[in-house]
Amino acid sequence: MGEAYERAYREIVLSQKDGGSCLDCGASGGHHFWVLHERMKLKKGNYRGIEWDLESVKRAQNKKLNVIQGDLNKPLPYDDNSFQTVFALSVLEHLLNGCQWMREAKRVLAPGGSLVILTPNISTFFTMMLLLGGKMPSSGPHPDSEVLQRNETPFYVSNNQCSDLESDTPVHRHLVVFSYRVLHSYLHQLGFVGIRGYGFGLYPFPNFIQPILERIDPYHCHQMVFAVSKEESKGEIPSYP
Prior knowledge:
CATH architecture: 3-Layer(aba) Sandwich
Shape: globular
Number of domains: 1
Helix content: 25-40%
Strand order of the largest sheet: 3-2-1-4-5-7-6
CATH class: Alpha Beta
Number of strands: 7
Radius of gyration: 18 Å
CATH superfamily: Vaccinia Virus protein VP39
Number of helices: 8
Structural class: alpha/beta
Distance between the termini: 32 Å
Order of helices and strands: HEHEHEEHEHHHEHE
CATH topology: Rossmann fold
Strand content: 15-25%
């Protein structure tokens, strides 16, 4: 996960090298702003965030960050061509309508702007082993209930087990998880260009050989990072807020 986040941050910094505003989708309390502020001196005036959890929004606003409450399953409350960078890190898998969100992300991106996504991959050897064992496939927190999480899953990817999976508004439940190939294909269908995909964590292979295998076979890695660009209009010079 650390390597996946590192790659995502590098892609965001690269996209922001010429300045402009960025939109943090699923901003939580604004953690990503502080990472980017340290790495590239991102200014608060160039940062926007949207987050559904009201307590997280309040924490971000108490730190003078421009984070609003909103539902990423609905149209984004921003004008067309508003941002140089849109990013969502460990967010896409929690959305009911992730495809609509990606279309909206493209709409609010300025021509030449970049979308950066970090999300788990459902097409993993871990998932295949679960299916072969007659278990419910899962990329992380179990998608249905705490009872199934305890009884259906023979082993976990991490020790971070959650307690709100059966609530009306779970923070941690994974709803729709893409495979590497499907997400790559959908981004292409949307008209994004310069698609770069990376895989991280190829279980059950040992750690020392994973960096090599991740480059050979990103399609079955546990985490994936995609960085794509919105094509610039011919004859149009991008203007970033």
